[in-house]
Amino acid sequence: MMPFKIHCIDVQNQLQNYIWLLEHTPSKQVVAIDPTEASLVTKYCTEHNLALSQIWLTHWHKDHIGGVLELIESTNIPVYGPQAESSKIPFLTHALQHEDRVNFHDLDIEIISVPGHTLGHIVYFIDALDVLFSGDTLFAMGCGRVFEGTHEQMFHSLNRLAALPPRTQVYCTHEYTLSNAKFALHVEPDNLAIQERYTHVERLRLLGQCTLPSTIELELETNPFLRANDVEAFTHLRTLKDNF
Ligand SMILES: [Zn+2]
């Protein structure tokens, strides 16, 4: 057993953000990924006797970086994030590029560049744990909107993630799975895996439960955006979803 554990903080905001905490259990130190609100992280760490020791950011959007300034006010913990967005995230202490490496205790984390949602968007892949923190690029049964990049860039970024080991667990930032499932069923009504997952996700959400993490394997079966064969098909799907 690896001495790491992942915690979920449900921000309960309109955008349905989750803040993921990666804990090194022997030391009780944690990394906060995309901390929307400082107070939620501080409160959670106090209640669970955890010590915040790093912050990882996937991209510059406010709901991902909103809590950082307050969290680093009284400490000098490192803040990792995309170099390409460092002008928009001035408090980065470690600016990261594609294939850079980050360490957390004895874990080796690989940075993958995935432009599309924003131009500098990065994700954090931990091979030893089979874990991916995918930000707003790959969602459960969906993908992020293409705000800054081109559809071609987003298509290639998603393909990069689709090529990770199938067992990789996908921790994305938002609880959008049910609305994504409705769209997936709309475009692939005969896909049994999508039908099954839709029912499962609907039940979880009725109980107020989190639908994450997903896996790359499950996404390959049920995520229309990963199932698109070419840029044209992807662009068509993304445009449909934007107006769904
Ligand atoms: Zn975003």
UniProtKB/TrEMBL annotation:
Monomer. It comes from the Bacteria. Pathway: Secondary metabolite metabolism; methylglyoxal degradation; (R)-lactate from methylglyoxal: step 2/2. Belongs to the metallo-beta-lactamase superfamily. Glyoxalase II family. It holds the Pfam family Lactamase_B. Residues 16-174 form the Metallo-beta-lactamase domain. Zn(2+) 2 binds at D63, H64, D136, H174. GO terms for biological process: methylglyoxal catabolic process to D-lactate via S-lactoyl-glutathione. Its cofactor is Zn(2+). GO terms for molecular function: hydroxyacylglutathione hydrolase activity; metal ion binding. Binds 2 Zn(2+) ions per subunit. SUPFAM superfamilies: Metallo-hydrolase/oxidoreductase (SSF56281). Keywords: Hydrolase, Metal-binding, Zinc. It is an enzyme of class 3 (hydrolase). Its EC number is 3.1.2.6. Zn(2+) 1 binds at H59, H61, H117, D136. Thiolesterase that catalyzes the hydrolysis of S-D-lactoyl-glutathione to form glutathione and D-lactic acid. It catalyses: an S-(2-hydroxyacyl)glutathione + H2O = a 2-hydroxy carboxylate + glutathione + H(+). This is Hydroxyacylglutathione hydrolase.
